[in-house]
Amino acid sequence: MKFITTEDYYHMSRVAANIISAQVIMKPSCVLGLATGSTPLGIYKQLIRWYEKGDLDFSEVTTINLDEYKSLSPDNEQSYRYFMNKNFFNHINISKSKTHVPNGLELDEKKACSEYNAIIQSVHGIDLQLLGIGQNGHIGFNEPGGAFEKETHCIDLSESTILANSRFFKSYDEVPKQAYTMGIKSIMQAKKIIVVVSGNNKADIVKEAFFGPVTPKVPASILQLHPDTTIIGDKDAFKKVSDLI
Ligand code: PGA
Predict the structure, then answer these.
(1) Are 197 and 132 in contact (CB under 8 A)?
(2) pLDDT digits (tens, 9 = 90+) for 136-184
């Protein structure tokens, strides 16, 4: 694993956006695995800026998002499809038909998951996967558990995730309790992975996930076994591992 220490959130976002830009420039028809959450927002802003300057062309890019709340429709402001459109896709020249997010409205779990697995297979592999990491070590919505789930599955969100994400909802009760998420195998099959972490509240999990044992109790720990993973963090997020990297 490679670690890049950055000054602050802005610098972290720029470094990650640079790596994504390089991917798009080197392979215009690449497949990007994308993430939601607060951390990637600065990356999307930077990529939009470069697109507006004429430096980036997304017309041939395909995207696969990690996850979606079960039961939320794409026009629900809290859905991840809405998030991606609002914060990224609406501002660049990507073809919406090439952007994929699990179908939150499909309540038949088996169908929703097998349809998303089929999409992941049809794009013949993710070139670059962007990940955030939850304070409990989740990647996508692969929550801590007894085993690494391989493919897209429906997950009962953990209490800590519901609590963390309730900041985006009017109340805790409004947070959906289930979600569809890409599985660990699909994430690990990405050719290259970048993980972004920012702030003091990620310092403990950074140490646990990347310097502790590989265990499904800390899903992000599996990334230690990936051949091309780069963790980009600001000083606060890296403060407990600065002497190890
Ligand atoms: P955050 O979420 O970027 O909002 O901290 C990360 C995650 O939960 O995966």
Answers:
(1) yes
(2) 999 999 999 989 989 999 999 999 999 999 999 999 999 999 999 999 9
Please give the distance, rounded to the nearest whole angstrom, from the Cα atom of residue 38 to the centre of ligand 1.
Answer: 6
Inter-residue contact 162 to 175 (CB < 8 Å) = yes
Q: Reply yes or no on whether the pLDDT at 12 is more than 90.
A: yes
Q: Which domains does the chain have, with CATH numbers?
A: 2-234 (3.40.50.1360)
pLDDT tens per residue across span 23-48: 999 999 999 999 999 999 999 999 99
What pTM does this model have?
Answer: 0.97
Query: Which atom of ligand 1 has the smallest separation from the CA of 201?
Result: 5
Q: Which residues are catalytic?
A: 67, 136, 138, 143
Residue-wise DSSP of 60-97: T-EEEESEEETT--TTSTTSHHHHHHHHTGGGS---GG
Q: What is the pLDDT of residue 94?
A: 98
pLDDT of residue 149: 87
Q: Is 183 in the pocket of ligand 1 (CB under 6 A)?
A: no
CA-based nearest residue to 233, from 199, 188, 187: 199
68: its two tokens: 């979606």
Give the β-pairing of 229-234 and 99-100: unpaired
Q: For ligand 1, what atom is nearest to the CA of residue 38?
A: 4
Residue 137 in contact with ligand 1 by CB distance below 6 A: no
CA–CA gap between residue 160 and residue 119 (Å, rounded): 30
Helix 9-26 × helix 41-53 angle, to 10°: 50
